[in-house]
Specification:
375 residues; alpha/beta; Rossmann fold
């Protein structure tokens, strides 16, 4: 098969769950004999197109800021929409797998697919629905409308979580939605050695509003009352970074938190996970959560908040962590309990994660694509 993935961010030049998913699936599909292309904004130096590990990369335009005042940039979404059509329509593909974010590019991608008689699949990482009003205020109506229209571009869709699949069926009752979750590289994770930097609690991910890192910082006030020397690592960067560091200072827990910034080598992130005891995932909105799943594979129980749009809840059960009431006091209680139970939960966590190996996910995706081509 000749397959194209379309998303604005390209791994490893941008690091996030969606781009990581595309990279892992692309490399494995290429090793299985398929011709795989990735189209996105160019965040690298050198030629706009190149081939690495059997995957063809195409920068459709220069990268630009993804966030404006802590929100996804509409200008960036428009720019991608303008730039992506010409490269895609220039050659035929059997499958075009277009990620639903940041929405506007999905329309020219659908047009290119129709013109070249390619099969379009939209992979949905989240459905925002009424959250658009909270995110854009008065303009939330336009976000909901664009999301609704996007759900009509293809009758074949992939959802990365059960929650997203349910929301998609609500958005478009006629859509054929297949669940193909994100994954992890189990064997690679096993080979990584623990870091010399030890911690009790760790968060790894973008520092954006939806990740709700305030809840973690505020909960540390209560954790510190019982464990004065508690150590927390926050690994990641984003528009909330400076504000969160100031928040930790104001609450008197800055000495207990180490802000690592962006950790470029992903193996270093895995090593930090293996040297910690609990992974905190306080997100109010999460499409899946590769970082929490990696933590589980490293043997860490996960504490996550009980928010409706938080799909990390699908990864958490009595073997793998606690779904906590999203208040600082309750979140702190859950963290302390998981710290106390870390040793007894470790094997259950590792066993649970085995079902999410990228090799298994790739086989499922390949079968899904082939079924589409067979009609």
């Amino acid at each position: 098969m000749k397959i194209a993935f379309v998303y604005d961010a390209v791994y490893p030049y941008r690091v996030g769950g969606v781009e990581k998913r595309i990279a892992e699936l692309s490399q494995r599909l290429a090793r299985r004999g398929h011709e795989v292309h990735i189209f996105g904004l160019m965040a690298w130096e050198g030629p706009s197109s190149f081939t690495r590990e059997g995957v063809h990369y195409h920068g459709v335009g220069k990268t630009c800021p993804f966030y404006t005042e802590g929100r996804r940039s509409i200008r960036e979404a428009l720019y991608l929409a303008v730039k992506v059509f010409s490269p895609l329509v220039s050659e035929p593909f059997d499958i075009i797998d277009c990620q639903n974010f940041p929405y506007l590019h999905c329309f020219p991608v659908a047009l290119a697919a129709k013109m070249r008689k390619s099969h379009l699949v939209v992979t949905w990482h989240e459905v925002w629905g009424n959250y658009w009003s909270e995110y854009l205020g008065t303009f939330g109506f336009f976000g909901r409308m664009i999301e609704w229209l996007t759900s009509r571009l293809s009758d074949k869709a992939i959802a990365v979580s059960k929650a997203t699949r349910t929301d998609l069926h609500t958005l478009n009752t006629h859509m054929d939605v297949t669940l193909i979750p994100n994954g992890i590289d189990i064997n690679h994770i096993k080979d990584v050695q623990p870091s010399e930097i030890r911690s009790d609690i760790i968060y790894s991910g973008r520092l954006i509003r939806e990740k709700n890192i305030d809840l973690l910082i505020e909960s540390l006030v209560f954790v510190k009352e019982e464990l004065p020397t508690v150590r927390c690592i926050i690994a990641g960067d984003g528009p909330e970074n400076s504000r969160l560091q100031n928040r930790a200072q104001d609450l008197g827990v800055s000495d207990n938190i180490r802000f690592m910034g962006f950790v470029r080598d992903h193996d270093d992130v895995l090593a930090l996970l293996k040297s910690s005891r609990v992974f905190a995932s306080p997100s109010v909105r999460e499409g899946f959560g590769i970082a929490p799943l990696e933590a589980i594979a490293c043997g860490l129980p996960v504490v996550t908040g009980d928010a409706r749009k938080n799909a990390v809840r699908e990864l958490v059960n009595n073997r793998t962590g606690i779904i906590s009431h999203p208040s600082p006091e309750k979140f702190a209680e859950s963290i302390i309990l998981c710290m106390q139970r870390n040793d007894e939960m470790r094997e259950g966590c590792i066993s649970f994660a085995a079902d999410y190996d990228w090799d298994v996910i790739t086989e499922n995706l390949e079968s899904f694509y082939l079924d589409i081509l067979r009609g």
